[in-house]
Amino acid sequence: MCGIDVTVVTESADLPTVKEVSLDASCPVCGTAGLRMRSMALEIPYFGGALQTTILCGACGFRHGDVLLTNEGSPTRHRLRVRGSQDLSARVVRSSSCTVRVPELGAVMEPSMRSEAFISNAEGVLRRFRDILGFLARNSDSEARRRAARKSLDTLQAMIDGRQPFTLVLEDPSGNSAILHEGATVHALSERAASKLKRNAFTMELRPDAPRARASR
Hints:
Elements (H helix, E strand, L loop, with lengths): L2 E8 L7 E6 L12 E9 L3 E9 L6 E7 L6 E7 L8 E4 L4 E4 L4 E3 L8 E4 H18 L3 H18 L5 E7 L5 E3 L4 E4 L2 H5 L22
Antiparallel strand pairs: 1-2, 2-3, 3-4, 4-5, 6-11, 6-13, 7-10, 7-12, 8-9, 8-11
């Protein structure tokens, strides 16, 4: 995959420069040639330089975003105990290869070809889970699963409101994800542990009878 032309989309003293490149590649969804990639250099506090990229297909609307760190690290696990509303603003950098877990919900967000990177905060991550749970509450294939999703939505709202503590875990085999908060812990993942992380599915595991971690302060 290689670029054949470069266009500067925005350039000003106040905004980062966004560059657009035409790629010699076909869309993985519709097969149409002529993908475009937009990129923007970022400086993430406490984390260093990064490149935010978005690949776009003008034919079918396919898009894929990612955040690439200038200095790619080893596989890592970041963990934060969110004990109240003051911790909900913790900055979260999630690459497209990262698995996100909230054990108290029994919820796992896993990467896929179409999963996108994002830069958000702990509350924003919960809101992404809420969107998925809302879909499951309406469209799961059994009443038991729909009931479990509705129950989890109540728990999730209490977390968003800062009334219930929870654990946020990021596991990334590329080392391109992080939780930027003084209370967050970082541990290296072994190659064996990293190899067990899913890289080809986007799922929300929600089993009515599955044991869940207890929230603690």
